[in-house]
Design a protein that fits this description.
By secondary structure, the protein is mainly alpha-helical. The chain has one domain. The protein contains five helices and no strands.
Length: 163
Amino acid sequence: MTQAEETTASTLPSPGEAHSLRDRGLIASCIVLITLLAWTYLVHLHRPLTSPAAGDSRMAGMGMVMDRPWGAGDLLLTFLMWSVMMVGMMALSALPVLLLFARMHAQREGGVAPAVPSFGLGYLIVWLAFSACATAAQWALHQAALLSPTMATTSTTIARWAF
């Protein structure tokens, strides 16, 4: 083999490395796509909430009118809002760990194991659980009349403490 052939052969990835690069690209693409979809949805939700004609019932754009007791639909929409927001903010933070986890499994087993999507799903479940807690807290604040229909605090004590 000539020196030129050796140089070319040494710069090409081995079959295992090419497989690993493809897996990392797929994982990164999926996470970026999920993040972009979440942010697109949040921007879509934000538009009707900030229109000048919306008045005090700005949450009506999401199907939520907050000057009445919450129903199951309101809880579901609030949970959906929190969930999409958490996915939009936290999915990219999982990317380095998912890539590391995938590389570790690829080296050990010769390919990406089903444990990698399971690991990502577990991360997502943790943030969905947080979204459920945030929804419950928001509902409790609404029930205690500590939030206005525009979702602003009605308590000066809380406002001073939080800000």
